[in-house]
Specification:
Length: 82
């Protein structure tokens, strides 16, 4: 998204403070994905409620597919998505 607004490539974004944002976001999302485990649930368990292990498993799978689709789309297009 930064490529569209600022016309900077990925390496420029990382050198302009993007590494800290990436690291912080990665830590936050990693901790959030451990919520079902902290409640004693396993990924295969069938628990109740919104934040259950099965929903977390599917959210992770869909997120991975979305990232792969984004990369493939940008490679096919030869530029940023937007």
């Amino acid at each position: 998204m930064g490529e569209v607004y600022h016309a900077h490539d990925l390496l420029s974004q990382i050198s302009d403070g993007g590494a800290q944002w990436f690291l912080g976001t990665s830590i936050l999302l990693s901790v959030a994905s451990l919520v079902p485990l902290s409640k004693g649930s396993r990924a295969e368990a069938k628990t109740e409620g919104v934040m259950n292990a099965n929903a977390e498993l599917w959210n992770g799978r869909l997120a991975m597919l979305g990232l792969v689709a984004l990369v493939v789309t940008e490679l096919a297009k030869g530029s940023a998505l937007i």
